[in-house]
User: Which sequence fits this backbone?
């Protein structure tokens, strides 16, 4: 009888051990899954913070969804027109935009000054824009096919980036307004456009300035730099140029978030 009980208890013990093992595996799988979910959420939240800090506000620029920016070989950035009361600011803003856009490496970039002989000849020969009081020409809102072809051949580029400084205010607080557009010289279609005013007194702009120093300047003196930015025109211009350049290739940051998922 004892032998029979021993024989029967053996498979029962094996079954109990098997059931215990299954329960352990289930608990381990659940705990592991919870850990993975928590880890994924933390990474996603971290990624989203980086995304928000890296990207400017998305409601003031346009990207043509039917155009491939990687197919653009070279872009000519023409010195910006200036509607402000500070004529010297055009050079500073244009140079900052040129440097910030170059760092993005989306396309090749060349800088064309308003007094460049090639650009002035285009203005005179094609009546390209209206002449300003300072002798420069304000870029037109649209281009004819003849003008597009002439610009492409003369400036040796595939697209042209033109625009206007709509506002510049150094005091009592810094403010800069820009209206920009990137035109495909092959067909005249709009590739990208932006219109915005950056005001250092605005709370949203102030928050983005903090993120700019925290995530991109990596300076241990961020609060000091933030204070200097609202009084230093060059620092504020560099911040504005950085935000403009970021909108030229936002797909990079969408890919970052997608890869985290």
Assistant:
């Amino acid at each position: 009888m004892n032998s029979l009980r021993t024989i029967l208890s053996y498979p029962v013990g094996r079954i109990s051990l098997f059931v215990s093992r299954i329960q352990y595996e289930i608990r381990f799988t659940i705990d592991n899954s919870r850990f993975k979910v928590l880890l994924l959420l933390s990474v996603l939240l971290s990624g989203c913070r980086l995304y928000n800090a890296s990207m400017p506000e998305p409601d003031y620029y346009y990207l043509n969804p039917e155009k491939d920016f990687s197919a653009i070989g070279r872009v000519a950035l023409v010195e910006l027109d200036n509607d402000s009361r500070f004529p010297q600011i055009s050079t500073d803003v244009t140079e900052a935009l040129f440097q910030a856009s170059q760092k993005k490496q989306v396309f090749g970039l060349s800088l064309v000054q308003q007094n460049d002989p090639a650009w002035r000849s285009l203005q005179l020969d094609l009546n390209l824009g209206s002449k300003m009081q300072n002798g420069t020409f304000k870029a037109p809102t649209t281009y004819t096919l003849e003008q597009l072809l002439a610009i492409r051949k003369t400036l040796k580029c595939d697209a042209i980036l033109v625009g206007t400084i709509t506002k510049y205010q150094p005091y009592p607080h810094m403010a800069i307004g820009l209206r920009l557009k990137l035109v495909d010289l092959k067909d005249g279609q709009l590739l990208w456009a932006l219109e915005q005013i950056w005001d250092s007194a605005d709370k949203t702009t102030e928050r983005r300035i903090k993120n700019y120093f925290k995530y991109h300047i990596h300076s241990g003196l961020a609060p000091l730099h933030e204070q200097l930015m609202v009084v230093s025109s060059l620092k504020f211009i560099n911040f504005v140029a950085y935000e403009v350049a970021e909108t030229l290739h936002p797909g990079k940051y969408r890919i970052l978030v997608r890869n985290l998922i």
